[in-house]
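The protein record passed on for reference:
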Amino acid sequence: MAYDVRAIANVVLDRAEHLGISVTNLSINKILYFAHGHFLAHFNKPLLREKAEAWEFGPVYREIYRQFSSFEKKSINARAKKLDVSSGKMVEFSIALPPNELKFIAPVIDFYIRIPAWKLVELSHEPDGPWDRIWNHLSPSNPGMIIPDDLVAEYFRQHESPGGSSSA
């Protein structure tokens, strides 16, 4: 089962807080993209229900960009929220990942969370990677172009897990 990107964003933000690391809107989008890619390659199913879009500075989840746009380039110090229809109040997204999925995804997040945002952008722009294949095609590029999961899965299956010798 794929999860709402905002719930997984809160997992990333919880990990960042636990590790004492700042996360910006730019970096959380890349961390989510890399976590999704490794998860997709390992479990052969998507981590995230929403699709990454090819934007100028790499993969972006529109829902995350909007949720945290008020922070601009500053560190995010809130959690993604949703409307609870029964109470009419905004509540934080929460999720209880199955233990095997959390055991896999936590070190992936921890690996990428330590990488500066500019380096995450650089990693996401790797030649012939999913973002590059969508962004740098023959027709004009524009934000909003979906990066298909099949491209993401293919790419991440060809690269080692985080911490290995590969750049992905």
